[in-house]
Every structure is written in structure tokens, then in C-alpha cells.
Amino acid sequence: MDFPAVIPPQDHWILLYRWGAWAAVFLLIYSVITVLIVVSIGAAPATAQECFQIIQNNLWIGILRLDVLTVLAMPIFLFLYGVLCRALYRSNEALCVVSAACAFVGVTLVVSNASVLSMVQLSKQYAEATTEVRRAILLAAGESVMSIDMWHATSAVLGGILVQFAGVLICVAMVRAGVFSRLTGYLGIVTHGLDLAHILASLFLPVAGVVLMALAGPLYLFWLPLVGRKLYQLSCKAPIPEAN
Asked: Where in 26-85 does DSSP place strands (E)?
């Protein structure tokens, strides 16, 4: 029996596709804001002492530079992948199952290593410390937390690899299914592929990792609108055109 390339958006799935479209919009906004934060107020602090000082001067700037937005955005990425897997499941069951599993495990590993609240608490204790010994202990604790946060811990790096691998797989499914345009699928493969390469390269060649990240980042600003537009069309029961 032949199955359609996409499960028709029956009444009880219309809302899911609509939420998926909004998830793509939120992630697009997150991507733009993240770039603006890095350009305007700086990236993550390099040392615990610098981090404590930033938090004490301005709590909101501190938590933004500690990438709290990524902690909030990762579950939205997981939801978006879930919606995409649902839309493509019948024509690419194996790819969708593996992609969903990788995304779930990857997001869990990344979020579980977030250090924002830990560094805020340590910063508060550092500000209240009355002896140099106490401050030295708290600085050491801060450096330890930063060394195992969501950008440095082994489990977090593995989580990032799994998330990007899941993105590559779901975009391969897009190309094969013919529901999303080939442009969307291939652009997604390049985007997530570069992001995956950036994580791997950062382990051995940090400079190359930065270059790859700079190439991948702007591509999300094109890929996410394409994905959101198609999901919105599915939620409206719009005819699914043949992909070129």
C-alpha cells in the first residue's frame, strides 16, 4: 500500500503544525537576538572572576552572556524537530525515528549542563565573602562549573553533536519526501552540517570551529523561515506543491 508523502493535516494535527510554524518563528527571533547579544555586550565570559564581576554589575547582562536564551531555545528546537518528524514520518520512518531520538537525547544532555543558575549563586556568595580564602574557593568552584557547562562538558558536546546530526537527518528526509522544497532540505543539510562540523572542529582546531560557526549561523536566518512557512501551509490544509 502506498502512503502519501505527508500525513494529511487532519483536524487534530492542524494545531500541531501551527505551533511548529510558531516554533520556527521563535527560533528565528532567538537566532537574531543571540547575534545582537554577542555583538553588543559580548560572548560568554572567559574566566569565573570575569563572570562574577559581570553578574554583580548587571544580573541581566550576566545571564544573557551566559547564554540563558539557548537554555530556553533548546526545548523549542526539540519540539520543532518533533513536528517535522510527524510531517515526514510516513515516507521516511527510519530517518524520522533516529532523528527524533538523537534530538531528544542531545537536547537533554545540553540543557542538563547549563551553568547559568550555578554561576549566579556562586557570584552572590563571592560578593558576600569576607576572606580571601573564601573568595579563592569560590573562584575555583566557578572555574570548575564553567569547565563542565553546556559548551565544555563531554556530555554537552556529545549532546550538541547529536542535535546537529538530528538536524541533518531530518533535512535529508525533507529532500527525499518532496513535501518541503529541495531548497529547504539542502539548505538545512548545509546549515546543520556546518554547525556539526563546527562542534567537531572546535575540539581540535578552535579557530576553524569559530569560522564554521560564523558560516552556519546566518544560514539559520534563511532556513527557519522556509520551514515555518511550509508548516503554516500544512496547518491551513494548503495544497502541497510538487517540490522542484
From this structure: none
